[in-house]
Amino acid sequence: MLKLNLISAKDESRIVDAIRLAELNCSGEVRVHIEANCKDDAKARAIQLFEKLGMTKTKLRNGILIYVATNDHKFAIIGDQGINDLVGHDFWDDVKEKMLDHLKQGQIADAVCLAVTMAGEKLKIHFPFERNDKDELSNEISFGS
Ligand code: CA
Ligand code: CA
């Protein structure tokens, strides 16, 4: 997928590392999608990408997607139904608020890494790591439209 110059290689590897670490403690799957523009509502776009990236196909329906549109300064974080059944709105609001603090200062990688870590900690509570855990969804960031 097209990466353009959305983030630096260093930031990309920081984010992928954060995903890998988050998934060491839980059975859930965290993915990150970054693109330049978002014409729609960020949450609607994230829901569309969630399907497109095959994120509804995890066994326990416990994927979380963090979405950022860098040029349009939009972002969203959404979870699959297995998580939404267990986690309240306040959790997502809390993550979004903390992401916003970094995004306002242009710190995209910091915002994403923080969200990945918070998502991992929440997943750990509800979906602890299992011995035969599979990496059901790639830890690589997906880019572009
Ligand atoms: Ca897993
Ligand atoms: Ca994964």
Task: Describe the model.
With 145 residues, the chain is α/β, with parallel strands linked by helices. 45% of the residues lie in helices and 15% in strands. The protein is built from five helices and four strands. The protein has helices at residues 9-24, 42-52, 81-84, 89-103, 108-126; strands at 29-35, 63-69, 74-79, 142-143. The protein has a four-stranded mixed β-sheet with strand order 3-2-1-4, with helices on both faces. Helix 1 (9-24) packs parallel to helix 5 (108-126) and helix 4 runs antiparallel to helix 5. It is globular and about 40 Å long. One calcium ion binds next to loops.
For the termini, the CA-CA separation is: 8 Å
Tell me the β content: 15-25%
Task: Please summarize the sheet with the most strands.
Answer: 4 strands, mixed
- Overall pLDDT: 95
Judged by helices, strands and strand pairing, the structural class is: alpha/beta
Order of helices and strands: HEHEEHHHE
Count helical runs.
5
User: What ions, cofactors and ligands are bound?
Assistant: calcium ion
What is the CA-atom radius of gyration, in angstroms?
14 Å
Uncertain residue ranges: none
In order across it, which strands form the biggest sheet? 3-2-1-4
Report the principal-axis shape. Answer: globular
* Fraction of residues in H or I helices: 40-55%
Instruction: Give the tally of β-strands.
Output: 4
